[in-house]
Amino acid sequence: DVTHSHNSCGILLHNITRNVFVFVRQFRPAVLMHDVGMKLLSVNGETCVNIEHDTLQRGFTVELCAGIIDKKDKSVEETAALEVLEECGYRINFKDLEPISSTRLPLNLGTLQSMFYIKVTDDMKVDGYGGGNEEEGELIQVVEVKVEDVLKSVFDDQLPRPVGWTFAIVWFCYTK
């Protein structure tokens, strides 16, 4: 069982102006499907478009700012900087990214995810950016969590989040 996919990058943004982490809240159809089941998503093979708002919310996850590495002319770090601007609205210098680690996403992907940490300030925020790329079908909200509150979130089973998010937070707690 193999799914062809691209390698990716994930970025833990720490806004030091307000001492908050900047995450993204993003709709993931697979999360909704596995949470509520396919029967709610289709009737007689037809896709349902009228899913109740509360049910739809169960398909959102809180994640690191992230993106796939699909541009051959850009390094992983350059791609990460573009994703930070696109998803969170901060203009960063890719040379300021601090590597956290690279991990393999097991099971059917086997892809490599390179994770980074970067400090940002309110002055680095660019008007009109953030929220993802609508043309790519992204539905992203920027979420800020106080640094002192985030460790509680790591162990909150009600918060849907990928393992890379948890890994980056634990890395921060041990190294920063």
From TrEMBL:
Span of domain Nudix hydrolase: 4-168
CC terms in the record's Gene Ontology section: cytoplasm
Record keyword Magnesium present: yes
GO molecular function, a single term: UDP-sugar diphosphatase activity
Gene3D superfamilies (alphabetical): Nucleoside Triphosphate Pyrophosphohydrolase
Keywords: Cytoplasm, Hydrolase, Magnesium
Cofactors named for this entry: Mg(2+)
Superkingdom of source: Eukaryota
UniProt-listed InterPro entries: NUDIX_hydrolase-like_dom_sf, NUDIX_hydrolase_dom
EC number annotated for this UniProt entry: 3.6.1.45
Reaction(s) catalysed (UniProt annotation): UDP-sugar + H2O = UMP + alpha-D-aldose 1-phosphate
GO biological process, alphabetically ordered: nucleoside phosphate metabolic process; ribose phosphate metabolic process
Compartments where found: Cytoplasm
Assembly, per entry: Homodimer.
Role of this protein: Hydrolyzes UDP-glucose to glucose 1-phosphate and UMP and ADP-ribose to ribose 5-phosphate and AMP. The physiological substrate is probably UDP-glucose. Poor activity on other substrates such as ADP-glucose, CDP-glucose, GDP-glucose and GDP-mannose.
Name of this chain's protein: Uridine diphosphate glucose pyrophosphatase NUDT14
Organism: Helobdella robusta (Californian leech)
